[in-house]
Specification:
The complex is a heterodimer. Chain A is an all-alpha fold. Chain A is built from 10 helices and no strands. Chain A is flat. Chain B is of the alpha+beta class. Chain B is elongated. The N terminus and C terminus of chain B are likely disordered. The chains are: A mainly alpha, B alpha+beta. At the A-B interface, helix 7 and helix 8 of A face helix 3, strand 11, strand 24 and helix 9 of B.
């Protein structure tokens, strides 16, 4: 446990320094600072991954249960998503200015939560848990990435970008707009798989595929919100600023579903975050 | 949106020829063009679209209804309504008026309980406020699916036709043109080389180059929307044919799969159990069933037999490991104790047997909720009341939820009116207590009982199939680009040009832009006769 905590704090240190580098790099238009911020943040993935691995071996299951494990793994997935974005489009590494604070907040919140492990209950002992949780993390990461890109789009559109600044080196607005859409599209597919897997699993475990449990309802709400984005884009032709604002405003719904609902509602489903009562 | 493939006869008796390959923007009526290309919406086209919306066809009511249902704004509005409704529903406890969580919620929110109850919001997802908009959204989805199918069929035929080299249906106006040097005989080869270099597979048919997405790429959206329609229909119809309930069966006991065997049962209007009914038996119960190193809890061994006694299904039932036969799924519920008792006369002849199912309850002194039994005489008149509880063993201050090491039953016999205790005893197996008329109630043994949650839902396979198809459809619709590109030699103002016609139907604008940039770069400087 001690080594796990030490590694987590090492990861937090890397993420903090990376976040500061992103912010200063963007404010003072220092491209090298932004690049350094990216590499430092990605370096934090190593101790973070080892900490998750140590806990995995110690408790006997993947990071599925309890606020600490779940939110820590979301932070990991968010930083990993930043790495993927920067790999696909190196000029997009500035998205870290939006992603890293979110990741830092999440891992900070995780560290403040109780860390006592939760056992896998008979209901959770199923391969559907792996499928359901994996696609949940993939979808939430994709939506966070779309949010970050849309935010950058709006920031750049709002005021003239100085020549030679970090923002000026990003791809054209049309490319950012397209990338944001693609991340929403991929996130929507993952979210759909998550909901379908959850419904099939619920039927296997409890004999009912849908019972309007608060987290089920909010997952459907998130699905409807992002379905609205896709409809607006593909059918009504929403592009650019409107689509970017939609992607930005949709994220709180997703965030509330992932973290807010288990805390605010008394639900059997929410035990994954708040523990068993 | 409708795409016209033949001349339109309007109300004003004029005939309008339309380009068959034009897509129409649902709002503006303009023809869609790839980024940077000219608008291709002639005045006649706009008028035709407005007149189409103004019901040019004799079946105008049908078209009007279909147009309304196909409106993206209506679908948007319904999704917003259902989303807000679901959000409000999540704030209110859901269930029947008698359910504990509804009662608790009502006590905690007395101010709004009256309003919530008046609109039936405790069962929010079965009220007309939810069902009607959901049905309307289903209708919208169905109309949308139909229209998308027609568009997909049309696009698929266009892709297949051009793939064979038949570009007769392509409109006369290209997306952009590339001027050629007068003696540029290898222009098509150059264009083919450029496109191949951009990773685009090009087919050459005479003096035409064609490229495009696979024909199957257009199937995603219709597949997704039809799957949603099938899913909602399956859920709605399934609720009429579904039954789910809870049945308590003691170990060694057998019950028919029929309504009277259930303690709690909810059945759809058209549900019926098979006749003759199969039987369900619990032939054992492992209190702590371990699989894969994990304690799965209590796992009853359930055996289902048909009317002839042949085994239909059998196995241990525990979480995520239900028992299936036909459309029926048996899930584990809780478990408890079963006290088997017999009523004997003064000579020891058995007059009857019964079994009391006792649930664990850590809030009562014995650790089990007492079970009740009413004795009746030969004419069926109610006699004495029997209350029986089995005290559990204790360990470290907690009840141990297993059959006690030395099981006993605390039996209390009261008069019919309940105001006189006729007998009270702690019985061990084989012992008895006197009841009315010289008879005695004998405790035979204490065992386990399993509470099984049984669901009979024939719609589940269709729901699963619809879900999987919807996933496939949405993946195709969102990830597969739909586009087409045709390059052909032509003459413009007595000059040889390369005409490039593109169609960006979905997710392809950046790719087509890149191809245009590459082609323009390849043929830059041709005004002066150069090639590249």
């Amino acid at each position: 446990m001690t080594s796990e905590i030490i590694l987590m704090w090492a990861a937090i240190t890397f993420y903090t320094i990376g976040c500061i580098a992103f912010v200063f790099g963007a404010v003072f238009k220092q491209d090298k600072l932004v690049t350094a911020g990216l590499w430092i943040s990605l370096a934090g993935l190593l101790p973070h991954a080892i900490a998750i691995g140590i806990r995995w071996v110690h408790v006997g299951h993947a990071p599925y249960l309890g606020f600490y494990e779940v939110v820590s793994s979301y932070a990991f997935a968010a930083v990993l998503a930043l790495g993927v974005i920067a790999w696909i489009r190196p000029s997009m590494r500035i998205a870290g200015i939006a992603i890293m604070p979110v990741a830092l907040l999440m891992i900070g919140a995780a560290m403040l939560a109780p860390k006592s492990p939760l056992d896998i209950t008979p209901t959770l002992a199923s391969y559907w848990l792996t499928i359901h949780v994996t696609f949940a993390k993939l979808s939430y990461s994709s939506f966070i990435a779309a949010f970050a890109i849309a935010l950058v789009y709006l920031i750049r559109e709002r005021k003239p970008v100085a020549e030679g600044s970090v923002l000026s080196r990003l791809p054209e607005q049309s490319v950012l707009d397209d990338l944001s859409f693609r991340f929403v599209a991929v996130g929507f597919i993952f979210l759909s798989v998550m909901i379908v897997a959850g419904a099939i699993w619920a039927n296997e475990a409890w004999g009912r595929y849908w019972s309007w449990d608060p987290i089920e309802t909010w997952s459907l709400l998130t699905w409807i919100v992002y379905a609205g984005y896709l409809h607006a884009r593909l059918t009504l032709g929403w592009r650019g600023r409107r689509a970017a604002w939609y992607a930005v405003l949709a994220l709180p719904v997703m965030a509330f579903t992932a973290i807010g609902v288990p805390l605010a509602y008394n639900s059997i489903h929410g035990a994954y975050l708040t523990g068993y009562k | 949106m409708r795409v016209y493939t033949r001349p339109v006869r309007t109300r004003h008796k004029e005939t309008i020829e339309l380009d068959p390959l034009l897509d129409i923007h649902p709002r503006t009526g303009d023809g869609l063009a790839p980024a940077g290309g000219p608008s291709v919406a002639p005045v006649q086209l706009r008028r035709a679209v407005r007149l189409r919306r103004g019901h040019v066809s004799p079946a105008s009511l049908r078209h009007r209804v279909a147009s309304r249902l196909a409106s993206p704004r209506l679908a948007f509005g319904l999704m917003i309504y259902l989303g807000v409704y679901a959000f409000l529903g999540s704030l209110v406890a859901q269930g029947t008026a008698e359910s504990p969580k509804v009662v608790a919620w009502a006590l905690a929110h007395p101010g709004v309980e009256q309003l919530v109850r008046s609109v039936g919001f405790h069962e929010a997802y079965t009220t007309p406020l939810f069902l009607v908009p959901a049905a309307l959204l289903l209708a919208c989805t169905a109309v949308c699916a139909w229209r998308r199918t027609r568009v997909a069929l049309w696009r698929g035929r266009a892709l297949a036709r051009t793939g064979r080299g038949d570009v007769s249906g392509i409109g006369a106006r290209p997306t952009f043109t590339l001027p050629l040097a007068s003696a540029d005989e290898g222009a098509l080869e150059t264009a083919e080389e450029v496109l191949n270099g951009c990773g685009v597979k090009v087919n050459k048919h005479g003096d035409v180059l064609v490229a495009g997405s696979p024909v199957a790429s257009v199937a995603g959206s219709p597949l997704f929307h039809w799957s949603l329609v099938a899913l909602i229909c399956a859920i709605a119809l399934g609720s009429l044919f579904r039954a789910d309930g809870v049945m308590g069966i003691a170990v060694g006991d057998v019950k028919p799969l029929a309504a009277e065997s259930f303690g709690v049962l909810t059945a759809g209007r058209f549900h019926s159990w098979p006749v003759p009914p199969p039987t369900i038996a619990v032939e054992g119960l492992d209190v702590s069933h371990r699989v894969g190193g994990i304690d799965r809890g209590a796992a009853p061994l359930v055996v289902v037999r048909d009317a002839r006694g042949s085994v239909l299904a059998q196995g241990s039932v525990y979480p995520n490991h239900p028992l299936r036969f036909g459309s029926v799924i048996v899930h584990p519920g809780a478990y408890g104790l079963a006290a088997n008792v017999a009523l004997v006369d003064a000579r020891g002849n058995e007059l009857g047997r019964s079994r009391l199912l006792l649930d664990f309850d850590s809030h009562v002194p014995a650790g089990t909720d007492p079970g009740g039994l009413t004795l009746s005489d030969a004419q069926g008149n109610p006699g004495a009341q029997v209350t029986l509880a089995v005290p559990l063993d204790m360990q470290a201050g907690s009840f141990v939820q297993v059959v006690p090491t030395r099981p006993t039953a605390e039996v209390t016999v009261t008069s019919v009116a309940g105001n006189a205790v006729l007998a009270h005893a702690h019985l061990q197996p084989g012992e008895s207590v006197p009841v009315d008329g010289g008879a005695r109630l004998r405790l035979d043994n204490v065992g386990y009982y399993a509470r099984l949650a049984i669901v009979d839902d024939p719609s589940v396979p269709m729901i699963y199939v619809s879900l999987v198809l919807a996933l496939v459809g949405v993946t195709m619709a969102l990830l597969l680009p739909q586009w087409m590109l045709v390059v052909r030699l032509s003459t413009e103002d007595d000059r040889r040009v390369l005409e490039v016609t593109t169609r960006d139907w979905r997710n392809a604008s950046l790719r087509l832009e890149a191809l245009e940039v590459a082609l323009r770069a390849a043929f830059a400087g041709n005004e002066s006769g150069g090639r590249r």
